[in-house]
């Protein structure tokens, strides 16, 4: 008989700035302690981008977290059509624009996957500690 795979954790939050902290805490509750800081930061940055740029006031932001292939994978989905762009040179006085730089520095891999009907998912993987 095949082994049943781990069921991914799933959350949906209102597209509101207060959801960033709620999402970070929800993810931290199911992670091994040694991954809290890095995956917490990735969660914060991706949910912030989804709330600011990908979702309207009445929309939801969806998070899925699952372990696979020696990584924890996080997908943050929103209904927006825009694709996040990694800006390697935000102005020094900019108060935003560095979120994807942080994700890029921390994640083993990340990318954008269009959803079949509406929106996109930004997926990032963080390697499990040895």
UniProtKB/TrEMBL annotation:
Nuclease keyword on record: no
A GO term for molecular function: protein serine/threonine kinase activity
Residues of the Histidine kinase/HSP90-like ATPase domain: 13-110
This protein's record includes keyword Kinase: yes
UniProt keyword terms in alphabetical order: Kinase, Serine/threonine-protein kinase, Transferase
Domain of life: Bacteria
Gene3D superfamilies, per the entry: Histidine kinase-like ATPase, C-terminal domain
Pfam families: HATPase_c_2 (PF13581)
Record's signal peptide: none
InterPro entries: Anti-sigma-factor_SerPK (IPR050267), HATPase_C_sf (IPR036890), HATPase_dom (IPR003594)
Designated name of the protein: Anti-sigma regulatory factor (Ser/Thr protein kinase)
Species name: Actinacidiphila cocklensis
């Amino acid at each position: 008989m095949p082994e049943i795979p781990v069921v991914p954790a799933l959350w949906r939050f209102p597209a509101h700035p207060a959801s960033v902290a709620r999402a970070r805490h929800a993810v931290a509750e199911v992670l091994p302690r040694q991954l809290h800081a890095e995956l917490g930061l990735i969660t914060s940055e991706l949910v912030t981008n989804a709330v600011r740029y990908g979702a309207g006031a009445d929309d939801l932001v969806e998070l899925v977290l699952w372990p696979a292939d020696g990584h924890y994978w996080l997908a943050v989905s929103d209904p927006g059509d825009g694709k996040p762009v990694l800006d390697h040179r935000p102005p020094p006085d900019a108060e935003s624009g560095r979120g994807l730089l942080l994700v890029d520095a921390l994640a083993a891999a990340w990318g954008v996957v269009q959803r079949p009907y509406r929106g996109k998912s930004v997926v990032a993987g963080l390697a499990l500690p040895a």
